[in-house]
Amino acid sequence: MNQRIILSPATLEDVDFLVDIKTSISLWPYEDLLSIDKDAVRKNVVDRINSDWYKQYIVKLDTPERTPIGELHIHWYVEERRSWEMGYCIFPEYRGQGYGVEAAREVLKYAFDEWNAHKVVAMCNAHNTASYKLLEKLGLVREGVFREELLWDGRWVNQLFYCILDSEYRSMNSEEK
Q1: pLDDT by residue (tens digit) across 90-120?
Q2: Beta bridge partners of 160
Q3: 53: left (phi over 0), alpha (psi -120 to 50) or beta
């Protein structure tokens, strides 16, 4: 399959763009704790861009315009266990077209082939069907349900926990070749 997107590593020039994404309530309808304090988020984004434990990417269309269509991040979950946690946001007008799968597939490749990850995890609100379907399409396995973990939309809802191990990733990718 031809790659339709590019993962562009975030730089300090991308801080305002990322702050706008991370504080936009409309982009994160399933999140329970979303800060709209732009100054606090800006400090957090800068700290993460300057860190070695957090990888932040701008998802862009692979066209001459390089149109940004979202963001994807991956960071240490438990460093001693070589596990990483992944998260993402594709802009609404680009959702449902496979761009999120392509971006996440690329970052899984980095995690397992370049960063020596043992596992990659992801979590989502149980009501976020699109997110958990994306994770399952990538081969992540639902390992658990954190019951009533998130206070969302005025009620307690479940959070789903997904994981893919390096052995599963390698097996899945050797079958595709």
Answers
A1: 999 999 999 999 999 999 999 999 999 999 9
A2: 124, 145
A3: alpha
Burial of 13 (0-12, 13-18, 19+ CB in 10 A): exposed
DSSP three-state, residue 113: helix
**Residue 92: both structure tokens together:** 């609404």
Q: Is the pLDDT assigned to residue 33 strictly greater than 90?
A: no
Q: What is the pLDDT of residue 174?
A: 82
**Nearest in space to 87 (alpha carbons), one of 102, 69, 68, 100:** 100
Residues 138 and 122: their CA atoms lie apart, in Å, by 11
N- to C-terminal Cα distance for the chain?
A: 12
Average pLDDT on 151-173 reads 95
Residues 84, 87, 91, CA angle at the centre, nearest 5°?
A: 160
Nearest Cα residue to 116 out of 83, 77, 146, 73:
83
pLDDT at 130 over 90: yes
